Amino acid sequence: MRYGDISYFQSGVAVPLFSLYSKQSIGIGEFLDLIPFARWAKFCDFNIIQLLPVNDTGAESSPYSARSAFALNPVFINVQTVEGSADVEDEIRTAKHEFDKLGKIDYYHISSWKRFVLRKIFDNRYSELKKDKLLQRWIDDNPWSKPYCVYCTLKAMNGEASWKDWPEFRDPSAKDIEKLWEKFEKDNLFQAWMQFEAEKQFSAVIEEISKMGLRLKGDIPILINEDSADVWADRRYFSLDDRAGAPPDMFSYSGQNWGFPTYRWDVIEKDDFAWWRSRLAQASKFYHAYRIDHVLGFFRIWSIPQQEVTGILGYFNPCVPLTWEKLSSAGFIRETLEYLRRPNYGYDQLREFLGNDTDRLVPVCFTQLEGHPDRLILKLECSSEKAILGMNEPQEVKDKLLKVYWNRVFVPSGDENTFNPYWYWYNAPVLFTLPDYEQEKLRNLIKENENSQNDLWDANATKLLTVLSQETDMLVCAEDLGAVPPCVPSVLHKLNILSLRIERWARNWNAPYSPYYEMGEYPRMSVCATSCHDSSTLRGLWYEKDFDRDLYWSHAHLPGKAPEEITPSVVRQILTHVYSANSLFCILPLQDYLALSASLSKGSPESERVNVPGTVGGTNWCYRMPCSVDELMDYTSLSSDIRMLVDVRKRRPMWKI
């Protein structure tokens, strides 16, 4: 295994690459910034640095919204070290001054400027680059590069519009791509050259980090953007009829709709998982270990019809559905089941949902149920969240209509003989219109169905994750947060995939008061952390209104009541406790280590947060370190505190479980 032998407990730091900055970088963290950051990490005696994805996301700041599963993001290229940059030295100096003045990450403008100035350098060198044998060999060695480059070229020619809105070449063949490669040779070569330069810089960084004895952990998102080179060129692997997301939970009543297409695993399997194998081979150029984002999606993905906006009307795929045969044998007739899937209403029933807007909305949104003149049903043109939310009505009215639309026991499945339960089926008003004996019968059938999924999900994940885990010699870690099916721990264990424990969520949610698990109860084959990019930091958690500080303080076996303020000394006590975890790896976000330093944690806790799930824009994906990577070594007290934590953890006997 390329990670090397693990003979003691490992410690590390997680940081988004964009959050770093140095004397050399322009407006955003760059590949080369990892070298001075790694020197500091080595000084702290860390074993591993963990990054968020570094794929090309175009104009999108979210690293999880990639427009290629293979290409690196050119925004991370250090322009000054690119051959030919001397010709645009003045522009580079001016841009660095302007972006440094901002004191924050302006992703869109930084990304646009970098591509603009790289194009200038490329154009100046085009006559030699078109004959460059190393560049040509790189293109030949990376089969994904031509479709990606052609996609980027066409996207630029179409004003960066999605491929779905292009006037032509929306569904290209391999021959089409080859012809387009030749037709727009210069523009395509520019895209390839940027990737060549990005890979050259990142590879040099990996070499330096490895020489220091450090390891790098990457992040491989399970999903890919619909507007991506992969979906454009390899359409057969993706389903555009539905979108992936997450079911409702304590944080989101209506769940999440991520907008990404789901996979057609049957097609991918027929190709011997070639696309995924290539994706992992690309990642293995750079990483010693990798994190599988949303590993639960390999067991089952939350699949949402493409006409919906939220995640509330999704269902797990694959799943064992309730069938017409099963339901009819239990005494349900077709008319009842269709009523539970698409309810109809009397006028008075609708008035309970729509109130004073009933008389106005009925002729607009409802039609008579065929054969039942006294019953009303939503018109087909109003039967989607997109349609309802797109209406020229106040939000209050849209919310009323959504409640009507969501009132069901089964969600649409596209097959009249299969029935997938709605997430909140047990609270749906339509359920309570059935006779009591039918309600009870339905509750039992749905509960029985819920309990029948585990074997299917176990088999599905075992098949898919076996391919992933055995394809390369990288160490495999999983992000297994969320509603975890019972089969997940055993599958990860038998495939030697490390699970994840975020301390604040590692609790027994089925026990009274939801007690925290003891750090010694964490699985040995796991990665432990205080927080992650989708949560508040440790300082942020401390001031959240629903956070029970005293319960957390007692869980950490610390005396008395929890302090009102979270000071560096408080953080030191908390991290000492976290570092006692039985997990093989303890990899904390940089922000939670910086909280050990009063001078590096002066900003508001909110400013340290990387992302708020379910929100777009704002300060998401904009976190920037409070000091440069060059200055980190000056904070000797911080480094000393970290080394003490690492040293105690390192000296703990591995045999003690």
Mean pLDDT: 96
Rg measurement, Å: 27 Å
Strand order of the largest sheet: 14-6-3-2-1-17-16-15
- Shape, per Cα inertia axes: globular
Count of alpha and pi helical runs: 25
Strand content: 5-15%
Question: How would you describe the overall organization of this protein?
Answer:
This protein starts with 9 loop residues before the first strand and ends in a 6-residue tail after the last helix. It has 657 residues and is an alpha/beta fold. The relative contact order is 0.11. The model has no long low-confidence stretch (mean pLDDT 96). The strands form 4 sheets. The protein has an 8-stranded parallel beta sheet. Strands 5-4-7-8 form a 4-stranded antiparallel beta sheet. Helices cover 40% and strands 12% of the residues. It is built from 25 helices and 17 strands. α3 (107-129) crosses α7, α5 (145-157) packs across α6 (174-183) and α5 (145-157) packs across α7.
